[in-house]
Amino acid sequence: MKSLDLTGLKCPLPALMTKRALRREPSGTILEVIADDPLAYIDIPHMCRREGFEVIETQRNGDGVRLLVRRN
Question: Where in the numbering of this chain does the UPF0033 domain appear (predicted)?
Answer without folding.
Answer: 4-28
